[in-house]
Amino acid sequence: MYEAKLDPVRDAGKFVYHLKTLRKAGLVSIEKGTKKYSVTELGKILVEFSRDLEEYIAVKRGNRGVRPHQNRQILSERSENASNACR
Fold it and tell me: What secondary structure, in 3-state letters, does 57-87 show?
């Protein structure tokens, strides 16, 4: 919680709620022995996809030097990878 700059007293409930939601979605897992959380492969794919989407939106708005057709290809590949990971 400290790394996320959250107040353990004030934000604990929200933090736990969202962490449980991420675990149920299969995006985060917990090591039972150490109780440390880590991002799953599906979670990593989703993070990468969201970054690519953010870049694609920036291109559409004219904020980046990448050509839009390159982002369509990237998004298509990421979407395909994500759907394969869900199977």
Answer: HHHHCCCCCCCHHHHHHHHHHHHHHHHHHCC
Per-residue pLDDT of the chain (87 residues; tens, 9 = 90+): 777 788 888 988 988 899 999 999 999 999 989 989 999 999 999 999 999 898 888 877 776 555 555 656 666 676 676 666 665
Nearest-angstrom CA–CA distance, 36 and 30: 6
Per-domain boundaries in the chain: 42-85
Four-residue CA torsion sign, 65, 67, 72, 73: negative
